[in-house]
# Entry
Amino acid sequence: MEPSTDMNEFRYLLRTSKNIVAVAGAGLSAASGIPTFRGSGGMWRKYNAVELATPEGFSDNPSLVWQFYHYRREVALKAAPNNAHRALSLFSLPSIRNQIAPSSTFTLVTQNVDGLSPRSDKEISEIYPEALDQPQQVQPRLIEMHGRLFDVLCTDENCRHIEFNTKSPICESLAGTEILVEKNTLDPDIDIQSLPRCSQCGSLARPGVVWFDEVPHHMDVIDNIIEQADLCIVVGTSSTVYPAAGYADIVQDNGGNVAVFNLERSQNDENADFLFLGPCEETLLDAFS
Ligand code: BJW
Ligand code: ZN
# Structure
């Protein structure tokens, strides 16, 4: 059966669901000017994912990888949350959610590393300070499963110090190299000693993001949330990268429902119960209204 596109029917489902999870991807931040990975204009069309987003790529050439992540940090620092982030942040406030989905829990599991969802949560909480008085749910509001662009992680196994660092540029040797990234002419020879170093032990540091073949963060917590969920809202992801790509199936296998919000058709969306094609910064606002 084709997925329903009836927004009123979806709003009724929201109202009657008890454990709601949203699984988000790069499309959530597209309207903020953050490039996606796949599809037209996607970063993996222009840059080599194996060179730039694997542990082997980093050990082969940390200079290339740091330039790529320095560029990504600079783009994210200049960006601001959009209406899709805000719609999810508002929905994550119990006082607001109660009017749309009474007595429910909600967690946003995002694959994005750009920090825009936590920034949006903070901004919305400042607008609705009374929401903080509401009884808090046990589950976290937000999980950044692929790490954070602004975490800097020590590569020394015995140290593993991690630091949240929004310095721009992160170090002098990377200053201005964002132009090289845009031209796709990265410099493979920046001296390793002048790349970001651990503030505790001085070893080479790496971006605190989850690369291919690495285990995403908070897997136990996420697995539990997915097992409990009776509604999975899939937002702006191509649903090609596991384990996130498998969450909708698990919820459906457990008898729950799946609603996909994407600009265009995505992997496996024919099996969804609801499909809302269009920019999520518009469709999500409509869904939660
Ligand atoms: C809009 C929009 C708008 C645009 N509105 N929509 C073979 C088969 C199956 C699995 C594997 C396999 N070989 C290897 C694997 C595992 C591998 C994997 O899945 N590979 C696939 C490519 C096949 N996965 C891993 O290695 C993961 N780890 C793992 O599996 O560990 C084992 C383990 C797991 C669990 C327990 C125990 C052990 C790690 C994956 C790490 C992915 N890392 C990256 C980089 C992160 C850092 C960084 O940002 O640089 O994560 S890659 C990249 O892809 C990034 C993203 O988070 C991720 C997903 O991409 P996303 O978000 O879906 O973006 P796009 O561009 O693909 O899609 C955007 C969508 O938005 C499109 O659909 C647009 O239409 C839409 N859109 N504008 C709404 N306005
Ligand atoms: Zn260290």
Remarks:
- The chain is about 35% helix and 15% strand.
- The chain has a mean pLDDT of 95.
- The first strand starts at residue 19 and ends at 24.
